[in-house]
Design goal:
The complex is a heterodimer of chains A (317) and B (317). Chain A has 317 residues and is α/β, with parallel strands linked by helices. Chain A contains 11 helices and 12 strands. By secondary structure, chain B is mainly alpha-helical. In chain B, α5 runs antiparallel to α10. The chains are: A alpha/beta (317), B mainly alpha (317).
């Protein structure tokens, strides 16, 4: 049985300019211990998907349809206080920018202990501190006990992201949502954090949704990949299938943008044009204006089909 | 730290010197107090005699020099009108003014900050709009008008509160006797209203900015209850700029008491300075301004020290 099942999720933002369909009917599922990568360019709805699962969509946004099944409950039906109990314990998150994720005027120790005690009020203060120090050690923060008294500005970006990860893992989450967790870091630190997350997710036997615009990063750690475009999933399947044999022209385009790692000097092929505005989506397939294969058939939005073991929505497959 | 305080003391000394010179000069140019002090039919001999007694017969620079010599002995001169040491005259009146200013400040902080937070959290809803409308009115309505309307309603119409004086004073303050408290209510409310409105607006705009920060969203993602997110993390960060402004406002409040004291015939320094300027009582005016300047400097010092308490990033200095 799946840990998380998202069915027909639609999250729209009701702005002055009109209704922005940031996420418009997506389905995916996650088994325990699975790592799912959601890729797509900015504005494709990746982060909104993550925040929808967390129940943290700010006004003027709202989940207008669909279900989010998590451990047998439909999260969209939870009361605010029930949701609050799940956030930070069963479902935890790591944000993109460690520089701004931590409260700048409070020591990291207090922020860690606070997160712990919110979900385990029965814990003694001393015990919570020990637990927090233990977690900082697990994420590889040097001299963890002394670091508890540090303020965020006293740590480097990589160290802060380790603290944020420690904070996410404090309450043994079953699902971790990481929204571009390595994007704001230096390349060397990026690799370390990526490896760390992969290890920890395995150790804790939790599932991970890894949101990134970078297919190269996603392909390093994920079991399954969902490619999002303009609020919808256009291709969804296992990593091997998608990377070795992409079916959707957009996925093919994304892979053609990656430099080859075997040293062969292929020419990078950018995808022409930009993603359409979510306020003004074209009739039919959203990708047709940038697609080399588009024809009259594409004036109808393509239904999802199972092709070669993965889900894809394109007429041309 | 010690160096910082010594630097400050030196600056203070220069500021006080400059203030004394400017005030001295303006009062010197403003007119001849002897003409005001003596009856119109006084003889020339009496005028010369008086001028000599008050030390007004030298040139401007001689007079200022003798003022500085006296100052170095801790003497600010003798009031022309009261015949007592000017500093003593000011200090006798100071408790009445400080009492008004401190109570008004406390009132506006204790009400203004929570209202500002509520207005920020409910921005765009009727609750937030109502608070902001109230604060707009508080900023726009002149102090003297509010004072007079209060007197009209509570003293003249309903005869509930006394319209003038301090009432019964115990240990330098009216706040410890029932009669004194009744006398305090209207002047304090009048004085506080403008500051209250300003604190609401500042808190609201500061909070609205802070509430959009990542660490607030991350605090929610950690599952913290809303009041902890808003007050524990939001307000704590919004307070940093607020403390500076509140400190400066306290100085302004002392200055504003001039109007309030005049309306309610409050025997404080505000009324004293108006009377003394009219009587060209130079020693009292100079003494008043030096005392007020000193209070400003002390408040600023306290604000700087508070800053390092609230914002750990300032402790590096």
């Amino acid at each position: 049985m799946a840990l998380l099942e998202v069915e027909g999720l639609r999250t729209h933002f009701f702005t002055r300019e009109g209704e922005v369909k940031a996420v418009d009917g997506i389905d995916f599922a996650l088994k325990q211990g699975e790592i799912l990568g959601i890729v797509g360019e900015s504005g494709a709805g990746k982060s909104v998907t993550g925040f929808s699962i967390l129940g943290l969509i700010d006004t003027p946004g709202r989940i207008v349809g669909g279900r989010i099944h998590f451990e047998g409950k439909d999260l969209t039906q939870l009361s605010p206080s029930e949701y609050q109990q799940i956030r930070g314990s069963k479902i935890a998150t790591v944000f993109q920018d460690p520089q701004t994720s931590l409260d700048p005027v409070i020591t990291i120790g207090r922020q860690l202990v606070e997160t712990l005690l919110t979900h385990r009020p029965e814990m003694a203060g001393r015990q919570a501190e020990e637990h927090a120090i233990g977690m900082l050690k697990r994420v590889g923060l040097p001299s963890a006990a002394e670091r508890m008294h540090n303020y965020p500005y006293q740590l480097s970006g990589g160290m802060k992201q380790r603290v944020v990860i420690a904070m996410a893992l404090l309450n043994d989450p079953h699902l971790l949502i990481a929204d571009e967790p390595t994007t704001a870091l230096d390349a060397t630190i990026q690799a370390q954090i990526l490896y760390l997350m992969q290890q920890l997710v395995k150790d804790f036997n939790s599932s991970l949704i890894f949101i990134s615009h970078d297919l190269a990063v996603v392909s390093q750690i994920c079991d399954t990949i969902a490619v999002m475009y303009a609020g919808r999933i256009v291709e969804y399947g296992s990593r091997e299938e998608i990377l070795s044999d992409p079916k959707h022209p957009y996925t093919q385009g994304l892979i053609a943008c990656l430099p080859a790692l075997d040293g062969s000097k292929k020419r990078l092929k950018p995808i022409p044009g930009t993603m359409p505005s979510l306020l003004d989506l074209p009739q039919g397939c959203y990708f047709k204006d940038r697609c080399p294969l588009a024809d009259a058939q594409c004036d109808l939005y393509p239904p999802e089909r199972i092709v070669a073991g993965r889900r894809v929505s394109c007429h041309k497959v | 730290m010690l160096r910082f305080i010594l630097d400050r003391l030196f600056h203070t000394f220069l500021v006080l010197l400059a203030i004394s010179f400017i005030t001295f000069f303006i009062m010197y140019k403003a007119g001849d107090p002897v003409q005001l002090l003596l009856p119109p039919d006084a003889t020339q001999a009496q005028v010369v005699q008086m001028r000599h007694t008050l030390g007004l017969d030298g040139s401007f620079l001689t007079q200022y020099r003798s003022f500085l010599v006296q100052l170095s002995h801790g003497n600010l001169g003798t009031s022309f009108v009261y015949g007592e040491p000017a500093l003593k005259v000011v200090m006798e009146r100071l408790p009445a003014t400080l009492e008004l200013a401190v109570l008004a400040m406390l009132l506006s902080i204790l009400i203004g900050i929570p209202l500002g937070v509520i207005a920020a959290v409910n921005a765009g809803k009727w609750k937030g709009k109502a608070i902001m409308l109230f604060s707009l009115a508080g900023i726009s309505i002149p102090v003297f008008w509010i004072g007079m309307v209060l007197v009209l309603i509570f003293s003249v119409l309903f005869d509930l509160l006394p319209s003038s004086g301090r009432g019964e004073v115990y240990l330098f303050t009216s706040a410890l006797t029932w009669d004194g408290i009744r006398h305090l209510i209207m002047p304090v409310v009048t004085l506080a209203l403008f500051q209250l409105a300003r604190i609401i607006r500042l808190t609201q705009s500061g909070m609205r900015e802070v509430l959009t920060q990542d660490y607030i969203k991350f605090a929610r993602a950690r599952g913290l209850p809303e009041h902890k997110v808003v007050y524990g993390h939001g307000l704590r960060n919004a307070l940093i700029p607020l403390v500076t402004v509140i400190g400066l406002q306290f100085g302004q409040l002392i200055a504003f008491t001039i109007v309030t004291e005049t309306i309610f015939a409050w025997p404080g320094t505000g009324k004293l300075i108006i009377d003394s300027i009219q009587n060209l009582d130079r020693p009292v005016v100079v003494a008043y301004l030096l005392v007020i300047a000193l209070i400003f400097v002390v408040i600023n010092l306290i604000v700087d020290l508070l800053y390092t308490l609230i914002d750990p990033r300032m402790r590096l200095v």
